[in-house]
Amino acid sequence: MELAMIGLGKMGGNMAQRLLKGGHRVIGVNRSQEVTRQLAADHGLVPAFSNQEAVNALISPRTIWVMVPSGAATEAVVNELGDLLSPGDTIVDGGNTYYKDDMRRAAALDLKGIHYLDAGTSGGVWGLAEGYSLMIGGKPELVERLSPIFETLAPETDKGWGRVGPVGAGHFVKMIHNGIEYGLMQAYAEGFEIMHAKRDFALDLEQISQIWRYGSVVRSWLLDLTADALAKDQDLAHIKGWVADSGEGRWTVAEAIDLDVPAPVITLSLQQRFISRQDESYAAKLLAAMRNEFGGHAVKTE
Description:
The protein has 302 residues and is of the alpha/beta class. 52% of the residues lie in helices and 13% in strands. The termini are far apart.
């Protein structure tokens, strides 16, 4: 099959390479033209230097896969494609879009006869070699028609991907996937911090992570990656304890509130990320001051 990939960043570029290796014809567009030229020279990508050029290079019905940052960037690209494409063409959003935006965009494009799929995509930088987990929302017949693309991107043709519901469902499921990820990561981080603090045992954290990788009920790919990080430096002295969040954790917590579903682990793991960004906590200062006022407990001064 053929498709255009708009956005050739780390994940988009790797996805394009995986598709090319699978025998698909891929037209690529990227904000940095040098990236497009490099992928063309190294991997056989068909280069295009505008969305219009990419659309013109495809035979109807066209398929455009959008892999640009969620929010304003995706909105701009989808709006432009809505003016460039024809009835019967399909846009696939593989980024981390908020699912309600998918539903709104799909409804607007449907008035023009343009199809829309939302594909929640997981795999990160390892997806090129290992394949991507794909959670797809949209009409069953569209997913079936584009299945050769999904089968190539997935870890196996019949594993790691699937249609999970109508438009919006793909990114909804990916949102929850990332919320769960927050909780798992926080649990690992806290457990290893407790062991790191137990200095009298002189624990080898990299060794422990390797033991847990085999046979343990807590084994996972996240643990594999943790072991890799600890092998480099158990004290993580080169890393600042500042943790970003890309939006999905916040959306998951907001959805839990809207649905009256308790989600304390995911919610607290999100709050912990906020705490990590504070060089100094005013709240912690106030707690120390209160303890001093009611009990005369000592405070540390600067």
